[in-house]
TrEMBL record:
Keywords: Ribonucleoprotein, Ribosomal protein, RNA-binding, rRNA-binding. The globular domain of the protein is located near the polypeptide exit tunnel on the outside of the subunit, while an extended beta-hairpin is found that lines the wall of the exit tunnel in the center of the 70S ribosome. This protein binds specifically to 23S rRNA; its binding is stimulated by other ribosomal proteins, e.g., L4, L17, and L20. It is important during the early stages of 50S assembly. It makes multiple contacts with different domains of the 23S rRNA in the assembled 50S subunit and ribosome. This is Large ribosomal subunit protein uL22. It comes from the Bacteria. GO terms for biological process: translation. NCBIfam families: rplV_bact. Part of the 50S ribosomal subunit. One of its GO terms (molecular function) is structural constituent of ribosome. PANTHER family: CHLOROPLAST 50S RIBOSOMAL PROTEIN L22-RELATED (PTHR13501), LARGE RIBOSOMAL SUBUNIT PROTEIN UL22M (PTHR13501:SF8). Pfam families: Ribosomal_L22. It comes from Pseudorhodoplanes sinuspersici.
């Protein structure tokens, strides 16, 4: 007597992973997401492994989750996967105040982000 399963929004050759509320601004996260868009997953993992950005660790974790979803839930071949989308969205913003000179206060914004990674299986080209 449970609910009926929701229809799948992605095609059969795609899988995705979502990481919510990452403590970094969307602009900084998008720089790292831009690094992996359209690449094969093995290349993208290597790029994230050796990236000097702090947030690359969280992006790599999300990409590995998308790969695991593709392999375990959707029976896709890991060697034929590419990063189809790496979408960054805004989340909440914590507002803080800092005392400034002459009795004033300065606003400090601490933004959070959402990251969605979609991997797609493409057929290997016969060489």
């Amino acid at each position: 007597m449970g609910k009926t399963a929701r229809e799948r929004t992605l095609p059969d050759n795609e899988a995705k992973a979502v990481t919510r509320n990452i403590r970094v601004s969307p602009q900084k996260l998008n720089l790292v997401a831009q690094l992996i868009r359209g690449k094969k997953v093995a290349t993208a993992l290597n790029d994230l492994q050796f990236s000097r950005k702090r947030i690359a660790v969280d992006v790599k974790k999300c990409l590995e989750s998308a790969i695991a979803n593709a392999e375990n839930n959707h029976d896709l071949d890991v060697d034929d996967l590419i990063v189809a989308q790496a979408h960054v969205g805004k989340a909440m913003v914590m507002k803080r105040w800092s005392p400034r000179g002459r009795g004033r206060s300065g606003k400090i914004l601490k933004p959070f982000s959402h990251l969605t990674i979609v991997v797609r299986q493409v057929e290997a080209k016969a060489a």
